[in-house]
Request: fold
Amino acid sequence: MKVLVVGGGGREHALCWAIRRDRPEARLLCAPGNAGIADLATTVPISASAVDELVDLARRERVDLTIVGPEAPLAAGLADRLRAAGVVTFGPSAAAAQIEASKAFAKDVMAAAAVPTAASRAFTELTGAIEYIDRHPEPLVVKADGLAAGKGAVVCETRAAARGAAEAMLRGRALGDAGQVIVIESFLVGEELSVLALANPTGIALLPAAQDHKRLLEGDRGPNTGGMGAYSPVSLETPELLAKVRERVLLPTLAELARRGAPFSGLLYAGLMVDPGGDPWVVEFNCRFGDPETQVILPRIESGLVAALLAAARDEPFPPLRIGRQAAVATVLAAAGYPDQPEHGAPIAIPADLPNGSLVFHAGTTRDGSGVLRTAGGRVLTVTGVGATFADAQSASRAAAERITFAGKQFRPDIGWREISRRQSR
Reply:
């Protein structure tokens, strides 16, 4: 079969790697891809936002399945255009992708479906936003309504900080059009968990849960980022919790989207806060595979991935997935200056003798005219360790992260620190 993957980050590299493992005979295309993906697939220099060119490529190559990785082209209607051209496509319609593309829309859907989430209000004008903030308990969260590459949520310890965030978005246009509507919401207390589900009108298939690390610095300090690492499995993930997520979060949300004429087919990602009583509250929804969660979830799927992606795309019942018992820990290596002003162009050295069980997924990389691997994005590489135990996986990921070098490299050596604390407290 022939598969086209749209995108060029660590998530897409992990998808290409997993597809190659599941279907070694498949012919892989990736647009635009990156330096690491080029070792697995034929890369095509077409941007993930170039809808017309991508549709032409899929038709010309007669691909059997197109997988759209990033959220922006989904929100722009790429999946709709591909399906209209007769291409089997994994990814939701533009209408369904609003569950991620608009925080206000997602909140409205959750309210209608009685899905547990933080109380909130949306604003387009600064005066009303400031008045609301001044009456709101501390801490609170200010979010850009639109897509902001993982940087649109600001956790504010004080009302003064919230006023500054609201002014930066609405008046200063710090996030461009994404911040012209903002959502101000209550701060949720608990522990974060990412639950991803393949979904279509026939039902859902839960993937292994993961825990992301959004803050730049060790100990969950510093600014929010697109994600500095993840691990799976998470001992917080119990059958009882997953049953609550399924019945209280995923199924009601999908039913409400369908009621609004936007049935969802693809990957629905629920970013959750699990409160001290063990109940899930939705922090956000995404309409695609998470990054870096994908880099720890896919290595744990031993077989059945491509068949499941095809089933999602064709609106067919899901076949079984075989999930391994091994653990995976991913550490993101970021460029100097990330997340605000990442520096590009530094040469990257990846030793050939990295620890057993380590996988290197490229995100922001390129090769220059001399073949030298260089940094070309904020998040440069994701180093995933896979092992029989969490400790084995964490050790492999950290050791590989330390051995890979480029100028200004940033990474967190404490990925999975909550898991360690939880196990030590037992």
In short: The chain has four domains: 2-94, 125-180, 189-323, 327-424.
